[in-house]
From TrEMBL:
Record keywords, A-Z: Glutamine amidotransferase
Pfam families per the UniProt record, alphabetical: GATase_4 (PF13230)
First and last residue of the signal peptide: none
Xref: SUPFAM superfamilies: N-terminal nucleophile aminohydrolases (Ntn hydrolases)
Domain called Glutamine amidotransferase type-2: residue spans: 2-244
PANTHER family: GLUTAMINE AMIDOTRANSFERASE DUG3-RELATED (PTHR43187)
Protein name stated in the entry: Class II glutamine amidotransferase
Species assigned in the record: Actinoplanes aureus
Amino acid sequence: MCRWLAYSGTPIRLEELLYKPRYSLIDQSMHSRFGVETTNGDGFGVGWYPVDGPGEPTLFRGVGPAWSDANLRELARSTMSPLFLAHIRASTGTPVQQTNCHPFRYEHWLWLHNGSIRDFHRLKRDLVLAVDPELYPFMAGSTDSEVMFYLALTYGLRDRPVAAVERMAGLVESVGRTHGVEQPLQMTVATTDGDKTWCFRYSSEGHSRSLYYSTAISALHQLYPENERLRRLSDETRLVVSEPLADLEGAWQPVPESSYGVIQKGDDELGRFEPAVP
């Protein structure tokens, strides 16, 4: 499987999360603690928005292991962003190529995924045929993750993100059952339009991959008043991760099974995720 993170809040350099924490994303690419595979070396990617506000995000993706990419290290050292997604990949069978590396981008939207569509080779044709014909030309890779993204776009991601992802999941499960695949979907997903970020944790078998969100920064300021790194972050700052980046007591909360979260200005949201057949 894969590991990922989604950051929103005070602008920071990418290296603050990709490299500096004890269990940084780069560290997880070599020896993940909570993943199905220990090593995630089948490519990587980062997508980030500019400091001066939403707009089309920039992508940097590579096919080699994240731990040995000198360009990623240089970029992370010099790039600041208030909102970015980062991903390290462990392929579930599709080729290791740049177009298969996350995040995926369409206009000002980004999408990344950990998990798989079981027996994707059997379900792929039916799923791809459900993608809006106007969106189909923008699909560049061969992964189940990208197909999920374009199905969500087809079902209204830009207007009603939660409902669109629920319809995508419902279609995958319906097509899976048609082909005799009883538990076809395993996913943790993050997607953003540059303003809000939506995160999802769901699997057909009810035993989803790990996912955590950071405790409110205001609470962490009280718990760790001497922590210089935390003092630099605003109360709006939030982080969602496949696995915690550090052993800081009280800093991480597990995302409940079959749920979604919305990171936004003001109060965040947490709700029940329920697939719906389109």
